[in-house]
Amino acid sequence: MSQLKAIIGLGNPGADYDATRHNAGAWLVESLARDHHVPLRSERKFLGLYAKITLAGQDLHLLYPQTFMNKSGGSVAALAKFFKLAPEEMLIAHDELDIAPGTARYKQGGGHGGHNGLRDIIASLGNAKDFHRLRIGIGHPGEAHRVVNYVLSRPGKPERAAIDAALDEIERTLPDAVAGDWPRAMNRLHSFKG
To answer: Beta strands 90-96 and 132-137: pairing type?
Structure first.
């Protein structure tokens, strides 16, 4: 079982996007940095905001790409190349339309499911798909034509509170994930409803 060495939180850069649903993955990385009292600093070679923390006795790279969601792959590939990370040593945290706010799911491998950030990462890693994903539920607006506006708008207060509760629970499961005990991390996270 390969150990987790990096957590990448997807989102769009800039104040206009900070609080939008599409940035749910970035919220996790920001929260981890804050809870470990480490600033996320602009790192040009990774095209993103970067920090290093120690979790469960393991060094962990944190990255929030600043390339816009659809171009996340360049940032992820730069981090992977610099630290010689295998895809399965990375956890990509991203917003997920298909699950409700207040829930989150771990997953390894698979396609991009229409998520443009994942699509670009898979392409930039030479079609490698076996990285871990953390799907953070934001819910679905109900109709496909409303998705773009939905992901680029802010969740209401109850919805954001549910997402924040899920982010807190994710943090509680990360020591198991970092240690490679994915079944235990999954069991705990997948039974949580914020």
So the answer is: parallel
Whether residue 140 lies in the annotated active site:
no
Cα-Cα-Cα-Cα dihedral sign, residues 73, 77, 78, 79: positive
Whole-number Å distance between alpha carbons of 40 and 70: 21
End-to-end CA distance of the chain: 30
pTM of the model: 0.96
Catalytic-role residue among 22, 61, 115, 132: 22
Q: b/e string for 91-118 if b means 16 or more Cβ within 10 A?
A: bbbbbbbebbbbbbbbeeeeebeebebb
State pLDDT tens for residues 117-152.
999 999 999 999 999 999 999 999 999 999 999 999
